[in-house]
């Protein structure tokens, strides 16, 4: 009798374990994001292998909460013109400037990347890099990155702020922030190495476009854009050969903050050491002197 009970208990246990495994399999094959079920995992494999995919899932999650009220219905540029680069180091305000341009012109801006967060919340021409869009976002440099463009807008931001903005983006998406613990990871070595690597990239990227791009180049300092949006935007539109609509420009200025300009957050500690600041100032001076010696950036 006891053997029969043991057999029954064993059989029930096997059924229970089989049910658990079945439920686990169903859950694993139906990953959910934002309350919706993805119909296929092939998109995930494609994204993870794509060299052009710049932003992670965090920005996609945050972007789903926002809707942009555009000054005019967005459309492609007619007639198309040779593509124009909007080149910048990450964290320099590229997305915000694209937002301002789309508000002031009603024309799509494109990108050499495919950011799914931006694609679904205001930038439907992501991954389009031809002359049908007003400008094409790129953080790349080198001969291959430059060769497709006839003109270039080089957006430059002070390296300390740009690097910290990029650190925030990698941790919290387009408008989020890195937690204080992120700066202290591995006793601060992670942040220190991040600053060292990104500062080198900041210098190389800006000097490459400045020295080696042979087409007409218009340089904008991010700080200049913040101080005087109207003047900076008007001069840029003239460079892009876009007719200026007073109505659209006024609307763009009224809505200039948008959702893609990260709000300032005050921290109770300075992430940059004295040694870091000295190196940042030295490299910034080299790049800015090169800009003032070679180019003619728009004045206030």
UniProtKB/TrEMBL annotation:
Q: Which family does it belong to?
A: Belongs to the WSCD family.
Record's protein name: Sulfotransferase domain-containing protein
Query: Mind giving the lineage of the organism this protein is from?
Result: Eukaryota, Metazoa, Ecdysozoa, Arthropoda, Hexapoda
Q: Which InterPro entries match?
A: P-loop_NTPase (IPR027417), Sialate-O-sulfotransferase (IPR051589)
